[in-house]
Design goal:
The complex is a heterotetramer. By secondary structure, chain A is mainly α. Chain A has a single domain, classed as Four Helix Bundle (Hemerythrin (Met), subunit A) (Up-down Bundle), CATH 1.20.120.1200. Helix content of chain A is 72%, strand content 0%. Chain A contains eight helices and no strands. By secondary structure, chain B is an all-alpha fold. Chain B has one domain. In chain B, helix 5 packs antiparallel against helix 8, helix 8 runs antiparallel to helix 10 and helix 8 packs antiparallel against helix 12. Chain C is mainly alpha-helical. Chain C is built from three helices and no strands. In chain C, helix 2 runs antiparallel to helix 3. Chain C is flat. Classes of the chains: A mainly alpha, B mainly alpha, C mainly alpha, D alpha+beta. Chains B and C meet through helix 1, helix 3, helix 5, helix 10 and helix 12 of B and helix 1, helix 2 and helix 3 of C. Chain B: Keywords: Cell membrane, Membrane, NAD, Quinone, Translocase, Transmembrane, Transmembrane helix, Ubiquinone. Chain B: One of its GO terms (molecular function) is oxidoreductase activity, acting on NAD(P)H, quinone or similar compound as acceptor. Chain B: It is a multi-pass membrane protein. Chain B: It catalyses: a quinone + NADH + 5 H(+)(in) = a quinol + NAD(+) + 4 H(+)(out).
Chain lengths: 193, 319, 125, 202
């Protein structure tokens, strides 16, 4: 969220000033606040399924942010993979194991302050890195198309082919790992019986 | 686009969303009736009971809104809206005819449609969990398992068409479409349509709402208008699936005199597919859970991968 | 596509979202005016074929079911890459090489599917 | 599936063909409230009471498996017709009711009735909105008697029903006695003349 704001701020005379924001920028900040709020609710709510549902709001808000940054393809990947697959996976897992309705006391962790510290530190690091890397960059939303599937595909298959192929190995490793983890040692004997 | 034009498009999308699912629903009543040697509804509205679903809607609107005591009230109430609205949003990207006869041409068309449609299933999951009912929870679990098995073949089959056209835009795909894509993409079409049926939980893939086992799955505790919205979501889902299959695999508005009556071709093909959906429901028994998973993972996914290979080779060879 | 076109497109999508939410809200306001409200203990009881509900909603399910979920997420991530690839692979300058690159990518995952199949994960137990 | 078909999916296609063919045929639905159904013979709709035949023997009420028949009666003295004879008593039916909410339509009461007072009627339109109203009193049961169809005709060469044989025998006997009495009254000459032609016949 602050990347764009910082960019608008630091770019100085290069682009339009941050004191007269465009509609897209206003919407960006507002949605950013929604994302931040729902993200806080994800970690503070005492109802485990509600946490997963607030996560949907957070991820959906992020998708809207991507859309505002004209990263069309990534936005819909966000919806398809994170909301359509990962959250469904989470909910599925919760319902399979145990998802009581109402507050559960065990959701209050004793280590919440250290956790907050770690999360804060990680966020600060990321923020610093991002601001440092892009502080002079100004994303001109007037020239869109940078985030379309075609542009993504071109850069992926012209420049980033090797990481792409390595990714398939990573996915394969994840797949095999998942299969092995889900099959306990006595499983084969069970099957034969 | 002027403000007036925007308004017209919004109203048209809303109208399509409210009227066409009702038409499909009424057709289902009548077709299903006659296929089972019955006559279906005959009283409401006089002529062949055409107003049956309108009467149903009026009835639903007057019914008490019961939220079970053990339920999570907020999630329970929100679920129907989450199930319904994605299908309406999707309608805007589906082209009805050539040129500008589309709610709005979206660059990432196919991808947008598939992503947004996937959100709808959250509604069923929320409903199933929030009802505090064993049947509902089982229904939600089955819904999730079914989605996970069938979303993938659907994605792969849609990717095959995107490969053939070299674009993700639905209008772009129709612009590239040639008649010989019909045999070329036939396997993909079957995979897409079957997987779509499974995502809509229509028979023979209606394990998540299997009434003889778990009452009505995730919707067991719902009454009145909320229940009606879930039903509307199901029929809107049929509309979206059939329209999408038409656009991706059957050439959408392409056909004789498509310049003048292109929209009629789209509606005709969509209607035909909707008839097939109803026909399948009447003809086939429900698949068991293991058969469902087996069909998806060892049947549809390999078929879809094969279609991808075929599309890729043909496309590069003819380029 | 120009920026104006892009934003007006997604503006329209957002408007449809609003119209949909408005439709649901209007339907429920009308419902609120029309419906009766007479709750009773029996009516609000969880439905369980007419007998009083026993225990809570949760029932024990075998965790092996979960492997399908993993498989799906992994393959979905894979399938995502097909879309940007689909738009460019037949363009001049890509062609057969890109096709083979994708086949290698899909091939790795097909090996994974084959492994899962051989391990009996895909057969229901 | 017992037999594997030649082509994969042939069974699926066959299923589709069946439903499609059914769709093109006329439906078998009966338009009930407008068009009354043609009930098969001996339909068991409701149990009717032929009150005049009932002797309050209580057999039906006792045999009823779910005790849905209610009978009240009182005794009434019939004064002797002839002087010196004893007065007779007879049972008078006060109430005869069947609770059709309990009745399971087994027909045992109809079977056991020794005086043919209970009958099956094909009448079936007696649904009510209240379970209490399903208990029907004897006037309703008597009124249903009018809907009881005539017993079905016997087979062509079947034996005559016992009732008819007995009735005819009684009637013949009566006729003979009357004839005899008449002949005795008219005198001897007339009786001889009438006897003469009988000689020729065996």
């Amino acid at each position: 969220m602050s990347a764009l704001a910082a960019a608008a701020d630091l770019s100085g005379s290069g682009g339009p000033g941050f004191l007269s924001p465009t509609g897209a920028e206003v919407a960006f900040v507002l949605i950013g606040l929604v994302v931040l709020g729902s993200a806080l609710l994800v970690v503070t709510t005492k109802q485990i399924v509600h946490a997963a549902l607030w996560l949907v709001v957070t991820l959906g808000g992020l998708a809207a942010e991507y859309l505002l940054l004209t990263a069309e393809f990534i936005a819909w990947v966000q919806v398809l993979i994170y909301i359509g697959a990962v959250v469904v996976l989470l909910l599925f897992g919760l319902m399979l194991t145990r998802a009581p309705i109402g507050r559960s006391a065990e959701l209050d962790s004793a280590s919440k302050w250290p956790a907050l510290l770690v999360a804060g530190a990680a966020a600060a690091t990321l923020l610093t890195v991002v601001v440092d890397a892009f502080h002079a960059a100004y994303l001109d939303l007037g020239e869109t198309g940078d985030g379309s599937a075609r542009v993504t595909g071109e850069s992926l298959f012209r420049v980033w082919v090797l990481p792409f192929e390595v990714l398939s190995v990573l996915l394969l490793a994840a797949l095999i790992g998942a299969i092995i983890l889900s099959r306990s040692r006595g499983d084969d004997a069970d099957r034969r019986r | 686009m002027t403000l007036f034009e925007v308004l017209v498009r919004l109203v048209l999308v809303l109208l399509c969303f409210l009227v066409l699912p009702l038409v499909i629903g009424q057709t289902e009543h009548k077709v299903m009736g006659h296929m089972q040697a019955r006559v279906g509804p005959i009283y409401a509205g006089g002529f062949h009971g055409w107003a049956q679903l309108v009467a149903d809607g009026v009835k639903f609107a007057q019914k008490e809104d019961v939220v079970p005591a053990g339920a999570d009230r907020r999630v329970f109430r929100l679920a129907p809206a989450v199930a319904l609205i994605p299908y309406m949003v999707v309608l805007i990207a589906i082209p009805l005819g050539p040129g500008d006869l589309v709610g709005r041409s979206i660059d990432a068309g196919v991808f947008f449609v598939l992503a947004v449609m996937g959100v709808g299933v959250l509604g069923s999951l929320m409903a199933g969990w929030a009802s505090a009912n064993k049947f509902s929870l089982l229904g939600a679990l089955r819904t999730a398992a079914q989605l996970m098995a069938y979303e993938l073949p659907m994605l792969l089959a849609a990717a095959s068409v995107a490969m053939a056209a070299g674009t993700l835009s639905l209008t772009g795909i129709l612009g590239e479409w040639q008649w010989w894509w019909l045999p070329w993409q036939a396997v993909g079409a079957v995979v897409f349509f079957t997987a779509g049926l499974a995502e809509l939980q229509r028979p023979p893939f209606d394990m998540p709402v299997a009434d003889s086992e778990i009452i009505f799955g995730a919707y067991t505790e719902y009454t009145g208008l909320r229940f009606a919205l879930f039903l509307l979501a199901e029929y809107a889902g049929i509309l979206v699936l059939c329209a999408l299959t038409t656009v991706l695999f059957l050439g959408g508005w392409h056909g004789p005199w498509s310049g003048d009556v292109g929209w009629l071709w789209t509606l005709l093909k969509t209607g035909l597919l909707a008839f097939v959906v109803i026909w399948l429901r009447v003809s086939y028994p429900r698949l068991r859970e293991d058969q469902l998973q087996k069909l998806a993972w060892t049947g549809l996914i390999p078929l879809a991968l094969g279609q991808l290979v075929l599309t890729g080779i043909v496309r590069v060879a003819t380029a | 596509m120009t920026a104006h076109g892009y934003f007006s497109t997604y503006g329209l999508v957002g408007l449809v979202l609003l119209v949909g939410a408005g439709f649901v809200a209007a339907a429920f306001s009308a419902n609120r005016l029309l419906r009766p409200d007479a709750p009773s203990v029996e009516k609000l009881m969880t439905y369980e074929c007419g007998v009083d509900p026993v225990g809570e909603g949760w029932a024990q399910t075998h965790i092996r079911y979960y492997i399908y979920a993993y498989l799906y997420v992994i393959f979905a991530v894979d399938a995502i890459y097909l879309f940007p690839w689909a738009t460019v692979f037949a363009d001049p300058g890509f062609g057969a090489t890109t096709l083979v690159e994708m086949f290698v990518f899909v091939g790795f995952l097909a090996v994974g599917l084959l492994y899962a199949w051989r391990k009996g994960v895909l057969t229901w137990t | 599936m017992t037999r594997m078909s030649k082509f994969p999916g042939a069974g699926l296609a066959k299923g589709l063909a069946v439903t499609l063919r059914t769709m093109t045929k006329r439906s078998v639905t009966q338009g009930y409230p407008e068009v009354l159904p043609e009930l098969p013979p001996r339909s068991r709709g409701v149990i009717a009471l032929f009150e005049e035949n009932c002797t309050v023997c209580m057999l039906c009420a006792r045999e009823c498996p779910d005790w849905c028949i209610y009978i009240d009666s009182h005794k009434e003295v019939v004064p002797a017709k002839e002087p010196g004879a004893r007065d007779r008593t007879r049972n008078v039916l006060d109430r005869f009711a069947i609770d059709f909410a309990l009745c399971m339509y087994c027909g045992i009461c109809v079977e056991v009735c020794p005086f043919d007072a209970l009958f099956w009627s094909p009448e079936f339109e007696y649904a009510t909105e209240d379970i209490q109203q399903l208990t029907h009193e004897k006037d309703t049961l008597r009124a249903w008697m009018w809907t009881v169809p005539a017993p079905p005709a016997l087979d062509e060469r079947a034996e005559e029903p016992k009732e008819l044989t007995m009735a005819r025998r009684a009637a013949d006997k009566l006729a003979k006695e009357q004839a005899q009495a008449a002949s005795e009254a008219s005198g001897a000459s007339a009786s001889e003349a009438s006897e003469a032609p009988e000689d020729g016949t065996p």
